[in-house]
Design goal:
403 residues; Cathepsin D, subunit A, domain 1; 6-stranded mixed barrel; 4-stranded antiparallel beta sheet; 12% helix; globular
Amino acid sequence: MHDDHKHRFSQRIQRDAKRVSALLGRLSNPNSSNSDFKVVESFGSDVVSGMEQGSGEYFIRVSVGSPPRKQFVVIDSGSDIVWVQCQPCKQCYKQTDPVFNPAQSTSYSALSCSSSVCGRLQNSAACTHSDSDSAPCRYEVLYSDGSYTKGNLALETLTVGGTVVRNVAMGCGHANQGMFVGAAGLLGLGGGSMSFVGQLGGQTGGAFSYCLVSRGSGSTGSLVFGREAMPVGAAWTNLVHSPRAPSFYYVGLSGLGVGGVRVPLPEGVFQMTDSGDGGVVMDTGTAVTRFPTAAYQAFRDSFQAQTGNLPRASGASIFDTCYNLGGFGSIRVPTVSLYFTDGPILTLPARNFLIPTDEAGTFCFAFAPSPSGLSIIGNIQQEGIQISIDSANGHLGFGPNVC
């Protein structure tokens, strides 16, 4: 058995590296689709950390079908597909709940190649010229690390926090493999029309708010859909549109700070080019924040310079700045801040940038260099902070609530 913190940490970082590769792959192969149904009132569910299942992602509990079958699904702001593993299962990874059986659901309605929803699903697996109009609509999501989900597209009922949402376009995955540890599938929250947010349509205005609970706290966070979820008192920044990846939630980042002092960075290091290269993505599915190498190194060096009094430890996994804090009851560390182009400054609590990598007191600076010009603000840095996305008005907000 390797059920210790160091092993779980190692597995989590390996999955995170694959996640980053998957996002970079998505940028070179964007995908979008559509569907339609409406709900009226704001609704939501508790969010839990997947750490106990060995996952670096966050889960919510939904019920699928009629009668409803409870399933854990990953919440993913970088994806546009809703899917769960389904019987018969040609190839399935291990999940916490029983695999969903569509034959036992009275609300499950398979979609055919002639359906308008299938016509909006832009992938090579959907239908071919040789398929008849009555042939099943197939979906396929491939990730650059080799993970995938494949199956049939259907309309199904989802129950989220007691609210019944009918006719959700959902992938029923019969062949699935990869990084989806513990969860039954994925709830895409991206900006595309096939995501759960996109399918909710005008009644929620593309608005939702989430708070990712700090790992190991034993408490729960929240995910709420609807305009009523937009908090008063949040610090708002503009979303940035990407011509290459319109489903991702990009924000403008102008700088980084350590100890209240802005770090000197190369000019334009966080800017997006006209063709959509670079930029900064907010992503719930990536754990560790990545910055372009030049920005990361300047940021790291500034943090090291202000923590020279702390005993250093060897690097761990992707982290090159670690400390041996096993003998300390408490420590003082400099603040770490993200400066956004529209004025907001997000100052992170220490637990969001110094994280334990073992049970012996090793803590590491939880940032890493990006393999490309793309920056990703990951879920470790988002923990405990209310994040609100108002895509109708093109804004993303921080706070004022915590979890």
